[in-house]
Amino acid sequence: MPKKIDREKIAAEVLAEKQREISVSEFFLKNRQLLGFDNPKKALLTAVKEAVDNSLDACEDMRVLPEISVSIKQIEGSENRFKIVVEDNGPGIVDAHIPRVFGKLLYGSKFHSLKCSRGQQGIGISAVTLYGQLTTGKGIRVFSKISPKKPASFFEIHIDTKHNEPMVVKHEKIEWENKDHGLKLEVELEGRFTKGRQSVEDYLKQVAMVNPHAHIIYVSPENETFEFVRAINNLPVEPKEIKPHPYGIELGMLIKMLKETKARTLQAFLQTEFCRVSSRIAKEICKKAGLYEKARPSRIAVQEAETLYKAIQKTKIMSPPTNCLVPIGEEEIVEGLKKEVHAEFFAAVTRPPAVYRGRPFLIEVGIAYGGNLPTDDLVKVYRFANRVPLMYQQSACASTQAIINTTWRNYGLSQSKGALPVGPAVILVHMSSVWVPFTSEAKEAIAPYPEIIKEMKLALQECGRKLGSYIRKTIKARQQRERASLFEKYIPEVASAISKLSGEKREKLILCLNKILRKEYKIVKNAEEKEEKHSKG
Amino acid sequence: MPKKKKRSIAKDELKKFGKKLADDIKRGKNPEITLPVRALSNIIFDKKECKLVLGENVAKRYFFNVAHAKRFLQTVEIASICKRLIDENKHASLRDVFYMAKRTIPKTKINIVDQQSESDKAIEDLELITNCSREMLHVTANKNGSVAGNVIIEDRGDRIDWSKLGSGGWSIPSVTDEIEFKKVKAKYVLYMEKAAVWERLHEDRFWEKNKCIIMSSMGQTTRGIRRLLQRLYEEFDLPIYVLVDNDPWGIYIYSVIKYGSISLAHISGKLAIPGVKFLGISADDIEKYGLQRHFIKFTDKDINRLKQISQYAWFKNNKAWQRQFKKMKQNGAKVEIQALSSKGISFISEKYLPEKIKSKDFLD
Lengths: 537, 364
Fold this sequence. Notes:
The complex is a heterodimer.
Chain A: H1 2-8, H2 11-18, H3 24-30, H4 40-62, E1 67-74, E2 81-88, H5 98-103, H6 125-136, E3 140-145, E4 152-160, E5 165-174, E6 182-190, H7 200-210, E7 215-219, E8 225-228, H8 251-260, H9 266-273, H10 279-289, H11 302-314, H12 330-340, E9 345-350, E10 354-356, E11 359-369, E12 380-385, E13 388-390, H13 398-404, E14 414-415, E15 421-422, E16 425-433, H14 450-502, H15 506-536
Parallel strand pairs in A: 1-7, 12-16
Antiparallel strand pairs in A: 1-2, 2-6, 3-4, 3-6, 4-5, 7-8, 9-11, 10-11, 11-16, 12-13, 14-15
Helix pairs in contact in A: 4-6, 7-12, 8-11, 9-10, 10-11, 13-14, 14-15
Chain B: H1 3-26, E1 32-36, E2 43-46, E3 51-54, E4 58-62, H2 69-88, E5 92-93, H3 94-101, H4 116-130, E6 139-140, E7 145-148, E8 151-155, E9 158-161, E10 170-171, E11 180-184, E12 188-192, H5 195-203, H6 206-209, E13 212-217, H7 223-236, E14 240-243, H8 248-259, H9 268-271, E15 277-280, H10 283-288, E16 296-297, H11 300-311, H12 313-316, H13 319-331, E17 333-334, H14 347-358
Parallel strand pairs in B: 5-6, 12-13, 12-14, 14-15
Antiparallel strand pairs in B: 1-4, 2-3, 7-10, 7-13, 8-9, 8-11, 16-17
């Protein structure tokens, strides 16, 4: 009666049979929205984004001006399959690392470091490999060249979805003509090509805006070529890596660090693993926590870690250093806007660094106004975190809130309550930080911490004032023109009346009056220019 | 002054005005009109002559100045209209002139004048510029006054007997310079601001019983009436008594007849009648006849106006008047002439006026 025995089996044991390890890849399949692959349209964009962000970071690490080409081609005979090719002139990747970079999820150099880099925002290029593999069955193809003297490498990589391990399908040395160093990857995936907002073109345009040192060429599936030219020949300053600040650490992370540290005493742990912790501060923390300062970090139990965590919060610690932040720069933002937005006025503001929860950050704002921009629409907002465009969830973003809460009427734009301003303007908001706080895993909206909103508002106001004075000036000039045209309309009337009174010829009077108008108008104009110069000085 | 000569004076003055502007323009100068300032700040009370005259402050109006351009245009446009009227020997009312000037400048949405007050102001300016009265520029005002009394006049060849004109009386034209008095049998002239009061007195044949002339307008006294009053005062030596409401506006009507008005200070020589006497309603009348029951509370506007008037140079040092203003302020309310009717419909003609005139209870 084996069946009976089955029935008598203990429930927990039955359930236990069902419990098994979930591979990262399976997790990915069920939670693709976390990684930016919610729908085919976004998947195409995310794939390009991961590749381009990596390329820009790599070029900057090597201190070389980025030359990036992106091409998307529709696979013949299929409506929703695309082949993406991204090539850069970065340092390339050594052979030993290539399989894991492209074929193992959650593998990378950037996740643990506190450094202003683009990379922390994505799950990494391996997610693209996986997505391509899941939707087309094909792996990623990688070309890498690390030196002009060495031959290039070619890899074709799949992911073993069960064990989250790379599978190298093909590896060979090849010749890569006319290339000193760089990386090229090709991936096929299911997607949907669109134009306009939230398209690849829109994304690259925004990338070009805040990376005026990059040269990007994009060939779309419709075989259109877009070139985003380089406007600045200086690379951004290399970001410095910093240690975490005690205020910015969470309990779980603290426990992990306690376990992994090489320091032998608690005091040494605090001093070496964190920034801004001197021996005096370290002792103070230990005292407050009631812990022996020579205790072994690894032996501090969960219970004690929590008291340590609380003691840290109670201790006064200096703000973290801010030299780890890399602003784009006011001049660079203006240049970036100038080449991507057709407007007549540009201004930018870089705020001094500030701190939220022990993490340094810095806000920059740029505004473009006038020109071909539509007059009756809401202003267009471009949001960036560490030079990466944020394409989705605009309304949830701290920057949107900051813009709405700024009184734009003071600066010459109209605005209804609780809405973005209306006018021919583009507003750019950039946040640079070693750790940008996002509202959700999709990493598309900056969390509205009060300190961040405050800094954003200050930057917007400062930039707004520049805009306001420009708008007032143009209005003044327009009024001047209107005045002149008013006189032009009055002249024939005044001339005929005076002609009737005096008997002078009307035409002659008109002629003379027009002469005076030109003279007088010029005088007024000069006076105004002088006034402007004066106010500038 | 013969008619023809007058016409040519105005015509010459307008031409002179036009020539001056044309010369400015030909010399490349921003054309300008110089005008005395017509505001209280530039009004001087001439104590000797007992009338208001314009001071020496002048304002310049330039064409090439955004703030002035439109009024400049209005002034020259109205001047050319006046010239045409004189050339064609036609007269036009202020309203006519407004419509003659009201047109849209080609290819714009701008009207030369939008409101009659604009063309009226331009005409007042032209009086100052040319030193000719409105009438000389062939512009007339609406007639809005009535007169009755034992008087015979001749106007444009018609004989008119002011005692035989039924219930309406003779309506006073806007130009009264040219009428001829044939017979004047009266001891004084009674002028009142209310047409309704005039009708009451006329019905009661007040002018016949008291051997006087009764005259009224509706509200502000027109120039035609003021000129007529002045001629009766100067040519026939008739005293002139003014009957108005007991409020700042009534007092100002009296003030204008006596001293001239602020906006027309430039022609006060022709219109002011320093001998005019204020008959009522005075603050003392209110007490004497118990009119407190008919108080109408002052508005803020009334109070401000009272304050202004009490500060005018010609009232400032007049003790009797300051006493009146003080009482008026204390009352905080006005009393209309018609309040007298509460004593009986003909109380005004049978009791109030005869008593006042007999006892010479006037203010000066």
